[in-house]
Write a structure and sequence with these properties.
The chain has a two-stranded antiparallel sheet. The protein has a two-stranded antiparallel ribbon with strand order 3-4. It is flat, with a radius of gyration of 26 Å. It has six helices and four strands, in the order H-H-H-E-E-H-E-E-H-H. Helix 3 packs antiparallel against helix 4. A hairpin with a 4-residue loop joins strand 3 and strand 4. The chain has about 160 residues and is an alpha+beta fold. It binds zinc ion.
């Protein structure tokens, strides 16, 4: 246990471990947020932050309930408001392809995603294939039952 334990790894933020946890369709929104973060850091170079001189940075970027959630290590007022606005805008942008046409929040078996009609169809097909794979063991059981049937027929013939 101790040999494998890395404090550096333990201290890593989700963004360092997982990157952006959402589809590429939202990258332009994330870039807008990144620009604000960079600008803020440039104008607060001499440790003038409200958080002990720490640089403003991303902690986690992910999709939650069909919307873009951006977490920072602290939130200057105007940036907090901008992040809320980006979350709101993400409802209307397809998370997969970035299309803004007919985007709806889709329940994909308990996982909510903002998707355009084309990506919705693709996602539902993918889920169907996944469920087909998941329930394959049922086919095996059915096979066993079918296998026993000829024996019953044989018994009948013997009795006649
Ligand atoms: Zn799409």
């Amino acid at each position: 246990m101790e040999d494998n334990f890395s404090f550096d790894e333990f201290m890593k933020e989700p963004i360092e471990l997982f990157g952006y946890e959402c589809g590429d369709g939202w990258l332009p929104l994330i870039e807008e947020a990144k620009k604000l973060v960079d600008e803020w850091n440039e104008s607060h170079e001499n440790g003038l932050s409200t958080w002990g001189g720490e640089k403003l940075q991303f902690v986690q970027v992910k999709e939650k309930w069909g919307e873009l959630c951006i977490y920072l290590n602290f939130y200057p007022d105007h940036i907090f408001e901008k992040l809320l606005e980006l979350s709101e805008r993400s409802h209307h942008i397809c998370e997969e392809c970035g299309s803004t046409e007919n985007v709806k929040i889709q329940d994909t078996h308990g996982w909510f995603m903002a998707l355009c009609p084309k990506c919705r169809e693709k996602e539902m097909k993918r889920l169907e294939a996944f469920h087909h794979e998941k329930y394959e063991p049922i086919t095996t059981t059915k096979f066993e039952v079918e296998f026993e049937l000829p024996n019953i027929e044989e018994n009948k013939n013997e009795n006649n």
